[in-house]
Amino acid sequence: MALLVLVGLPGTGKTTVGREIASNWNRGFIDTDDLLAASVGCTAAEYLRSAGEEAFRAAELRALEEALAEDAIVATGGGIVTTRSAREVLAGERTFWLDCSDDEILERVGDGDRPLLGDDPRGALVRLRQQREQWYREVSRVCVDASGTLDDVVERVLSEAQRVGQ
Predict the structure, then answer these.
(1) Can you tell me the distance from the alpha carbon of 2 to that of 71, in angstroms, rounded to the nearest whole number?
(2) Cβ-proximal residues to 58 (8 Å cutoff; 6+ apart), any chain
(3) Neighbouring-strand partners of residue 20
(4) CATH value at residue 124
(5) How far apart are CA 78 and CA 111, in angstroms?
(6) Distance from C-alpha of 133 to C-alpha of 44, rounded to nearest angstrom
(7) Interval 1-58: pLDDT, tens
(8) Could you tell me which of 103, 108, 75, 67 has the C-alpha nearest to residue 7?
(9) N or C: which end of the chain has fewer CB within 10 A?
(10) Count of domains for the chain
(11) Which domain does 134 fall in, by range?
Protein backbone atom coordinates (compact mmCIF):
# COMPACT_ATOMS: atom_id res chain seq x y z
CA MET A 1 0.00 0.00 0.00
CA ALA A 2 1.27 3.45 -0.89
CA LEU A 3 2.20 5.82 1.93
CA LEU A 4 0.39 8.74 0.31
CA VAL A 5 -1.36 9.28 -3.03
CA LEU A 6 -1.77 12.72 -4.60
CA VAL A 7 -4.61 13.51 -6.99
CA GLY A 8 -5.73 16.76 -8.58
CA LEU A 9 -6.05 18.71 -11.80
CA PRO A 10 -3.07 19.09 -14.11
CA GLY A 11 -0.69 21.72 -12.78
CA THR A 12 -1.59 21.46 -9.10
CA GLY A 13 1.88 20.18 -8.28
CA LYS A 14 1.29 16.48 -7.64
CA THR A 15 4.66 15.39 -9.04
CA THR A 16 6.70 18.25 -7.59
CA VAL A 17 5.08 18.00 -4.16
CA GLY A 18 5.22 14.20 -4.19
CA ARG A 19 8.95 14.17 -4.91
CA GLU A 20 9.60 16.62 -2.08
CA ILE A 21 7.52 14.64 0.42
CA ALA A 22 9.29 11.43 -0.61
CA SER A 23 12.60 13.17 0.01
CA ASN A 24 11.42 14.46 3.42
CA TRP A 25 10.23 11.00 4.44
CA ASN A 26 13.24 9.26 2.88
CA ARG A 27 10.90 7.11 0.79
CA GLY A 28 10.48 6.27 -2.87
CA PHE A 29 8.44 8.34 -5.28
CA ILE A 30 6.33 7.03 -8.18
CA ASP A 31 4.53 9.05 -10.83
CA THR A 32 1.87 6.95 -12.58
CA ASP A 33 2.50 8.88 -15.82
CA ASP A 34 6.12 7.66 -15.72
CA LEU A 35 5.03 4.05 -15.16
CA LEU A 36 2.54 4.35 -18.00
CA ALA A 37 5.20 5.82 -20.31
CA ALA A 38 7.62 3.01 -19.49
CA SER A 39 5.00 0.39 -20.29
CA VAL A 40 3.84 1.89 -23.62
CA GLY A 41 7.12 3.29 -24.90
CA CYS A 42 6.16 6.96 -25.21
CA THR A 43 5.04 9.81 -22.95
CA ALA A 44 1.61 9.74 -21.38
CA ALA A 45 0.57 12.71 -23.53
CA GLU A 46 1.73 10.99 -26.73
CA TYR A 47 -0.05 7.78 -25.78
CA LEU A 48 -3.26 9.63 -25.02
CA ARG A 49 -3.14 11.28 -28.45
CA SER A 50 -2.23 8.13 -30.37
CA ALA A 51 -4.28 5.46 -28.58
CA GLY A 52 -7.29 7.48 -27.45
CA GLU A 53 -8.69 8.10 -24.01
CA GLU A 54 -10.19 4.64 -23.40
CA ALA A 55 -6.90 2.80 -24.02
CA PHE A 56 -5.04 5.48 -22.08
CA ARG A 57 -7.29 5.10 -19.02
CA ALA A 58 -6.86 1.31 -19.07
CA ALA A 59 -3.05 1.68 -19.15
CA GLU A 60 -3.28 4.36 -16.47
CA LEU A 61 -5.23 2.01 -14.18
CA ARG A 62 -2.57 -0.69 -14.58
CA ALA A 63 0.11 1.88 -13.71
CA LEU A 64 -1.89 2.98 -10.64
CA GLU A 65 -2.25 -0.58 -9.38
CA GLU A 66 1.48 -1.16 -9.87
CA ALA A 67 2.37 2.06 -8.04
CA LEU A 68 0.06 1.36 -5.11
CA ALA A 69 1.77 -1.96 -4.46
CA GLU A 70 4.90 -0.04 -3.42
CA ASP A 71 5.78 1.58 -0.09
CA ALA A 72 6.12 5.01 -1.74
CA ILE A 73 4.60 8.41 -2.35
CA VAL A 74 2.46 8.26 -5.52
CA ALA A 75 1.48 11.10 -7.84
CA THR A 76 -1.28 10.33 -10.32
CA GLY A 77 -2.29 11.79 -13.63
CA GLY A 78 -4.97 14.46 -13.31
CA GLY A 79 -7.67 12.34 -14.92
CA ILE A 80 -7.12 9.14 -12.96
CA VAL A 81 -10.43 9.74 -11.16
CA THR A 82 -12.49 9.60 -14.37
CA THR A 83 -12.92 5.83 -14.26
CA ARG A 84 -14.97 4.07 -11.61
CA SER A 85 -12.39 1.30 -11.22
CA ALA A 86 -9.62 3.81 -10.44
CA ARG A 87 -11.86 5.64 -7.96
CA GLU A 88 -12.63 2.37 -6.20
CA VAL A 89 -8.90 1.63 -5.90
CA LEU A 90 -8.07 5.16 -4.71
CA ALA A 91 -10.85 5.20 -2.11
CA GLY A 92 -8.95 2.62 -0.08
CA GLU A 93 -5.71 4.62 -0.07
CA ARG A 94 -4.37 7.63 1.86
CA THR A 95 -5.35 9.92 -0.99
CA PHE A 96 -4.92 13.69 -0.77
CA TRP A 97 -6.39 16.11 -3.29
CA LEU A 98 -4.17 19.05 -4.25
CA ASP A 99 -6.12 22.06 -5.54
CA CYS A 100 -5.50 25.70 -6.35
CA SER A 101 -7.04 28.42 -8.49
CA ASP A 102 -7.40 28.06 -12.24
CA ASP A 103 -5.18 31.13 -12.71
CA GLU A 104 -2.36 29.51 -10.75
CA ILE A 105 -2.76 26.23 -12.63
CA LEU A 106 -2.64 28.01 -15.99
CA GLU A 107 0.47 29.90 -14.95
CA ARG A 108 2.15 26.64 -13.90
CA VAL A 109 1.31 24.58 -16.98
CA GLY A 110 2.30 27.36 -19.40
CA ASP A 111 3.06 25.79 -22.77
CA GLY A 112 3.49 22.28 -21.37
CA ASP A 113 2.24 19.22 -23.24
CA ARG A 114 -1.27 18.90 -21.80
CA PRO A 115 -3.47 17.34 -24.52
CA LEU A 116 -6.73 17.65 -22.60
CA LEU A 117 -6.28 21.42 -22.22
CA GLY A 118 -6.17 21.82 -26.02
CA ASP A 119 -6.44 25.19 -27.75
CA ASP A 120 -8.57 26.75 -25.00
CA PRO A 121 -6.74 25.93 -21.77
CA ARG A 122 -8.90 28.15 -19.54
CA GLY A 123 -12.17 26.78 -20.90
CA ALA A 124 -10.88 23.21 -20.81
CA LEU A 125 -9.71 23.64 -17.24
CA VAL A 126 -13.12 24.92 -16.19
CA ARG A 127 -14.75 21.87 -17.84
CA LEU A 128 -12.26 19.45 -16.27
CA ARG A 129 -12.82 20.98 -12.82
CA GLN A 130 -16.60 20.73 -13.18
CA GLN A 131 -16.34 17.12 -14.31
CA ARG A 132 -13.74 15.89 -11.81
CA GLU A 133 -14.20 17.86 -8.62
CA GLN A 134 -16.82 15.49 -7.20
CA TRP A 135 -14.54 12.52 -7.91
CA TYR A 136 -11.50 14.10 -6.28
CA ARG A 137 -13.64 14.73 -3.21
CA GLU A 138 -14.97 11.15 -3.32
CA VAL A 139 -11.54 9.48 -3.26
CA SER A 140 -9.67 11.89 -0.97
CA ARG A 141 -9.33 12.09 2.77
CA VAL A 142 -8.55 15.79 2.56
CA CYS A 143 -8.23 18.65 0.09
CA VAL A 144 -4.96 20.58 0.45
CA ASP A 145 -4.50 24.14 -0.79
CA ALA A 146 -1.75 23.79 -3.42
CA SER A 147 -1.24 27.52 -3.96
CA GLY A 148 1.95 29.31 -3.02
CA THR A 149 5.48 28.05 -2.79
CA LEU A 150 6.55 24.42 -2.85
CA ASP A 151 7.59 24.68 0.80
CA ASP A 152 4.14 26.04 1.73
CA VAL A 153 2.31 23.22 -0.05
CA VAL A 154 4.59 20.50 1.32
CA GLU A 155 4.12 21.89 4.84
CA ARG A 156 0.33 21.79 4.39
CA VAL A 157 0.38 18.21 3.10
CA LEU A 158 2.68 17.04 5.91
CA SER A 159 0.47 18.76 8.48
CA GLU A 160 -2.64 17.08 7.06
CA ALA A 161 -0.84 13.72 6.91
CA GLN A 162 -0.10 14.02 10.64
CA ARG A 163 -3.65 15.11 11.36
CA VAL A 164 -5.27 12.16 9.56
CA GLY A 165 -2.58 9.70 10.69
CA GLN A 166 0.29 8.29 8.72
Answers:
(1) 5
(2) none
(3) none
(4) 3.40.50.300
(5) 17
(6) 22
(7) 679 999 999 889 999 999 999 999 999 999 999 999 999 999 988 898 899 989 999 9
(8) 75
(9) C
(10) 1
(11) 4-164
